[in-house]
Structures are given as C-alpha cells and as structure tokens.
Write a structure and sequence with these properties.
The protein is mainly alpha-helical. The protein contains ten helices and no strands. Helix 1 crosses helix 4 and helix 6 packs across helix 7. The longest helix has 27 residues, at 110-136. The radius of gyration is 20 Å and the shape is elongated. The N and C termini lie far apart (64 Å).
Amino acid sequence: MDEVRIRKWILERSTDRFLFEGFSNFTMDEIARDAGVSKKTLYRLIPSKNKLIVMVLDHQIEIIENKQRVILEDSSMGFKARLEAMLRIVSEFYSSISEKSLLEIERLSPDIWEMVRQRREGALDRIIRLLEEGRLDGQIRNDISSKFLGRYFQSMIDSLISPRVMMEEDMTPNQLLDITLSLMFNGINKSPGGIY
C-alpha cells in the first residue's frame, strides 16, 4: 500500500474515534494498532497526535465547505431551501463531534482551536453571502444586516446543537434544527396576527 493510501486509512480509522471519544482518550500506539500499521510507519507519515487531530478536523471541515459551495451555487433551489440546507450541514458537523472533543481542543490545543475558528468564519461568510442574495431578491428584511443575521443563525446553532441540550430536551440534532429554523422563519407567534 502506498503512503497516500496508508495516510488516508489512518485518517479514516482515527476520525470516528476522535470525534466520539475525544483525543486525550487514545494514544498514537492505539491508532497504529487500529490502523494495522507499525508505530514507525505511523510516526513517519503523521509525526504527532496534534498533526493527526489537525488532519481529522481539516478533512471534516473540507467536507462541509464542499457541500456548502455546491448548495450556494445551486440555482435550482430556492433561497429558504438553500439556507436551511447550509445550516443543516453545519449542525450535522457539530452533532458528529462530542462536546468532550470540542472542549479538549479548545482547552488543550489553542492553535488547533484557532484553525477551527478561522474555518468556521469561512462557513459564516458563505451563509452571509446567501443571506445577502436573499435580501437582494426581496426574500428577507432590509432593516437587519446580512452579517448580523449570519452571526445570529450561527450563534443559535452553536448554542442549541450540543450534546448537553440534546440530552436535556431528548431531541436529535435534526429535531432541534427544525425548531430553530421554525423560530427563525416564523417567530414565536402562535398564529398570523399574533403579538407582532
């Protein structure tokens, strides 16, 4: 097996473990054993655990970015459907990573956390671009900036789509996102002509 395929295999074997267990719960020796490669081969291809974590996160974020770009350019979908699809992709990503993993990265690897934060800004920029397109088409209000709306959507998803909230509310990520999107698009009014 060539080095590219071995590296890809190691990445695949590490991703699930890292996303669900966090990165402090396993060693590079365990990764080598799981991937069926020697420690020497593992360290030659991936010199450190931090490098492996960066590779896993980078790969996962790249998948999201590619999916969002496809949706952003899909003119056959309406504005609301594209916005919902883009937000759903983000929520699926966050729901695939345990809260423990995210907290470990933030606390133990500030440089990796900064990389994740910068990549998230790219996702936010794509959502803002779509919101601005919706504004120009008359789909959303003109009195609130697209940048503010993008940050609002992102903060709603960040605060609601978490393992803690899912357990407290006994809901799946998609159920929480459905409620969040309903509140975003329809507000809290019980019926037309309600409070506002």
